[in-house]
Amino acid sequence: MDTYSVMREFADSWMLLFLTLFFVGVIVWVLRPGSTKAHRDSASIPFRHEDEPAGAEDDGATCRKEART
Question: If pLDDT is split at 50, 70 and 90, which confidence band does 24 have?
């Protein structure tokens, strides 16, 4: 049996099973009950600084102000 046939047989059987289980596992992990807060926080990233620039409340702005004085 040549290498191609062995690899093809492995991909058609065990690798297909592994990838299917991996896909189902990722879906279950994303839809788990405790992940709602994390998903909402990630979804709101583009709207976080609508009213003022991003540097207004982060530590980087404070450090720059201290360096100038």
Answer: very high
